[in-house]
Amino acid sequence: MPLDDDHLRGVLRAEADRHTPDREAMLERIERGRPASRFPRVLRPAAAALAVVVVVATVVAGVRRADAPDPRPPIAASPVPTLRFSTPSPVRGKGLSAVGKRDAHSFASWSQQQVTLHTDGEIRRLDVTIRIARSEQVADTGRWTSIPAEMVSASIAVEQKALIYRFTLKPGGTLAPGSYVFAAQFNHAIEPRALTGDAFTIVAGGVTLTGGFSA
């Protein structure tokens, strides 16, 4: 039978009410179905914050410990022996000067004694002798000169009380005005070695210079 408008609206409203979800029931189902990890989700940021607090506390404690004076007595370091080098006075002759010195690169068990010769004029005849006293464990390790090898002969003689290093300008050679170096190298005992027994002699033309070495 045909339905009037009022009756039709009543039927539709009843059907709509029947299909309307029960809000309380839905909330209850949602609560029952919610995973148990809800509380840990809230806890994680708190745990992270706690970790930060622990780290900060550790750092601050470390800073405080670093600021606090160390109760342990300081350890005294043993001083390392040092070689002291002075500026020696040169010996002088006619147009010549020479100085003997222990080279700064020498160390506890090895030394280089060197002679620096300065000339204001040309040199055509030259003989340089370096005498190294044979104290304990003295042994030759080498020799050199700033004069080109083809212009000079160099030799060493081992005597009972000394090592004798000799440098001789070869015939026909001429040294221009300037400075020239002659060096003797040797090992020795590890101890402060006295230089009083070391000496040099330079014969250049008619001029002879004799001197010692300083450290």
What can be said about this structure in brief?
The chain is α+β, with helices and mostly antiparallel strands. Helices cover 26% and strands 34% of the residues. It has 2 domains: 5-67; 91-214, Immunoglobulin-like (Sandwich).
Q: What is the helical fraction, as a range of percent? A: 25-40%
Unreliable spans are 36-67, 73-87
Tell me what the CATH architecture of the largest domain is. Answer: Sandwich
Number of domain units: 2
Helical segment count = 3
**Proportion in β-strands:** 25-35%
Q: Classify the fold: give the CATH topology of the largest domain.
A: Immunoglobulin-like
The tally of strands reads 10
Major sheet details? 10 strands, mixed
Instruction: Identify the overall geometry.
Output: elongated
- The radius of gyration computed from the alpha-carbon positions, rounded to a whole number of angstroms, is 49 Å
Q: What's the pLDDT, averaged over the residues?
A: 75
The SSE order reads HHHEEEEEEEEEE
Would you state the CATH class of the largest domain?
Mainly Beta
Question: Structural class from helices and strands?
Answer: alpha+beta
CA distance, first residue to last residue: 137 Å
